[in-house]
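Quick one:
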Amino acid sequence: MIKQWIKNNKTESVSILFFILFAIYLWSGLELRTPEYDEIWTLQFYASQPVSSILTDVATPNNHPLNSLMIRYATMFGGYSMGAVRFPAWLSYCGLFVIALIAAIKCFKNSVTRAAFLAWVMLNGVLVHYAETARGYAVQTFFVTALFLSLILYNKYKEQPARRKGYAILFLLTAAGCCLSISSGILYVTFLTGFWWIFTTPFKSGIANIWKEQKPWIISGIIFAIFVLLWYGLHYTEFAKGQAQFGDPMNSPERFFIFISNTLTSLNLWIPLIFTVCGVILLLLKVRKEDLKFCLVPLLALAGMFLSAIITKAGPPRVYLPWVPILCFSAAYTLDQLLEYSRIRKFSPVILLAAIAAAAFSMNSVRQKAADPDLGIAYRDLKENVSPDIYIAYRPTDAFVLSAVFGKDVIEDNLRRMQDPKMIMLFHDNLIGAMRFTDGSTCSFAPTLSTPVQQGSMNDDLGYWIYKLRPPRPGEEWEKSPLVLCRMFGTHHEELRQKQNWLKNNFAVVNAFLTRNLSRLYPAIPSMQFFVSSSPGLSADEMLKLEEDRAGRIRFFILE
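Output:
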């Protein structure tokens, strides 16, 4: 039976073989890449907690409950290796291929369309990145795609009661999975299900016939609604905290359209979107309104999702990752319709090669843009090649990653560079990242009045800028205050003990994750910390007076 299927479905069989090889390739690299900030945070503060805490601690978007739960059990069996930590995301990616393959076989007539669809989805660079990253986005993408497939198959087999019940149950399970993977799942379920229901419900037949045709689905919908009321209702306060602290408010039309453009560009979705619009036009010209749902529902649901950002705040592009397989499906459906024309069908081999080549060649560049720079490689390079009199100011998330991965090694390197710095090195976006005294929140300072003595990039993906440091000069006055750094030896300064003063009011902590436990780790040496401010509230003479009074245990530096 399997041999016969392979013989009759050669293109699909080749696609399966290529995916298996590609999945093995991804698996072999799970241990090689340095973990990102969110991965370490998930592992330390969520996946290691009891199940009850994982399912209730939803005040921050970092905890993706299903993913954290899966990581918890994966690490119980596989240990705290990155392979085990990233296994749930990789497994979800493999599951997504199975769902995409079923959708391709059930919905597309042409084998070229099926192969092109699988290539577009599985070689999307952002999706590949999150397939090897211990976050919940690949998990949610699997559930959203499975939900969409359940809607399609329920409608396709509505005359077969046994199958219909099975797909109604699949809808219920996948809808719950969408919400438990990431809280934004409720929006995917609402918009996709709502528009699909509008397009497939025979309203003219009467309520009795609608109930008869959709009874299993409606019952599943009612059970899901109860789940939503309980899940979101019981955790409303926590979800509200997360919404208040995170997200980007859409307070102007310009900002809204930039958000849409950035999201579509980052996810490589412009071409599938254009294809989908073309599909709507083509189906209208062919007067096949019953098939419009395959292209129009994704378009309307995507529009609803974007418009909802005006109320709920917009997330980063990764929040909208599940639209990759959905829009690729509708784009492939358009291609399938086009291949019905013999003039176009004769170019099938060229179309297939072009579709696969476009997906393959764009994958790595899109994948690299979605990923954070590999800090493990960067740190080893910095330690070996950057002069010890250059102080390296990591942004807080980078310092957190490096302290978790390299421990005392990076802490000691930071201590050495504090001794007598002549220059300072910044990364990413040419900002000094820091943490406020008041609540530990992050902030950043731009050296707009300074000129770098050197700039460039490391490993082609991590930009850096180097600035000179100098001491304040007696009688010096500034029209606009430059960035000021303050270094303190020891932990007994009155500025650190008082609740409010010039330090705590105006300065923020640099490399906090590399200095917070110095007294415990190195009890024999005095603790050292660096602080930064763009408005220090002190004159140059006051800074010099403080240095003199503290016998050099406080020093100030000006960015030239």
